[in-house]
Amino acid sequence: MEQSSKNPKPKLKIDWATHAAAKYACENWHYSKCVPVGKIVKLGVWENDKFIGVVLFSRGASPNLLKPYKLTQYEGCELTRIALNNHDTPVSRILSVSMSFLKKSNPGLKLIISFADPRQNHHGGIYQATNWIYSGTQVPGGSLEYLINGKWTHPKSVGSTYGVQGKKFIEKNPGIKTRKPTLKHRYLMPLTKEIRKQIEPLRKPYPKRASSVESGTSVYQTEGGGESPTDALQNTSSNTLTNEKITQSG
C-alpha cells in the first residue's frame, strides 16, 4: 500500500539484509508470514535510518521459469517478497531502487519475473506503476497446494519442511485438504535492451484493480517500529544471482 508522504523526500537506503531480518519482516509485515524456501537474495530497506522491511529475489518455484524467454537460470530471477512496515516512501520507488541495486550487483541478470495473486485481491498495481510488461496468467510452479495448520502451503515449502510431498505426503497425512494452484498474473521486467525487444510483443493490457486496497506484490503492513541498521539486520557480504549459486553469508 502506498502511503501519503509526510516527508517529501525521506532518506531511502537499500542494502543487504540478514536472514534474521528477512524472517522478521516476512513474519510480521507480509501476508504469507514466511520467508520463501530455497536460495534467495535479501535486500533490506531503511527509511530515515529506520529498518522498514525487505525486498527478496530468488530462483523461483519452478526450474523452468526462464525457459520461455530462452534464458538460463543464472540470467533471471523472481521477485518473491516485498514485506514492509509503515513508511512514507512510495512502494514503487522502493521497488525501483531495489531493482537497480540488484542489477548493479548482478550484471549478468537480464530479466525479473513476478506474480500477483488474485486470491489475495492483487492485480499488480505496483508493477503497473513501474512499467512492467504484463504477459497474462500462469501457475508459477508446483503441483497441488496443501492446507496445513489452516494455511495453504506451496509444495516446495512442504518438501523443504517435511522432506516429502505429493502422493507420499498425502499418504502420510490422510484426509489433508488439497487444491490446484491458482493462476496468477505474470509480470516481466527486462533489464537489457535486447530482452526488452524480445519480450515486448508479449505485452497485454494491464488487468484492472481487484479491490480498493492493492498492495502490488503482496506487501503486507502492520503497526510496529523498526530498528536502526545493526549487525543483526544488515549484511555487507556480496549477494549474486548470476554465479552458479546465490551466495550470501549470514
Summarize the structure.
This protein has 6 helices and 10 strands. It has helices spanning 19-29, 91-105, 125-129, 155-162, 166-172, 193-199; strands spanning 12-16, 40-47, 50-58, 76-84, 111-116, 133-138, 145-148, 151-153, 178-179, 184-190.
Total number of helical segments? 6
The CATH topology annotation of the domain at 12-141 and 181-202 reads as: Aminopeptidase
Find the structural class using helix and strand composition: alpha+beta
Q: Major β-sheet, in short?
A: 7 strands, mixed
CATH superfamily of the domain at 12-141 and 181-202: Gcn5-related N-acetyltransferase (GNAT)
Chain-averaged pLDDT: 79
Helical proportion, percent range: 10-25%
Assigned CATH class of the domain at 12-141 and 181-202: Alpha Beta
Q: How many DSSP E strands?
A: 10
Rg (CA only): 18 Å
Fill in the keyword field for this structure:
three-stranded antiparallel β-sheet, seven-stranded mixed β-sheet, 10 strands, globular, alpha+beta, Aminopeptidase, 21% helix, 250 residues
Protein described:
The protein has a domain at about 10-140 and about 180-200: Gcn5-related N-acetyltransferase (GNAT) (Aminopeptidase), CATH 3.40.630.30. It is built from six helices and ten strands. It has helices spanning about 20-30, 90-105, 125-130, 155-160, 165-170, 195-200; strands at about 10-15, 40-45, 50-60, 75-85, 110-115, 135-140, 145-150, 150-155, 180, 185-190. The strands form two sheets. The protein has a seven-stranded mixed sheet, with helices on both faces. Residues about 1-5, about 210-230 and about 240-250 have low confidence and may be disordered.
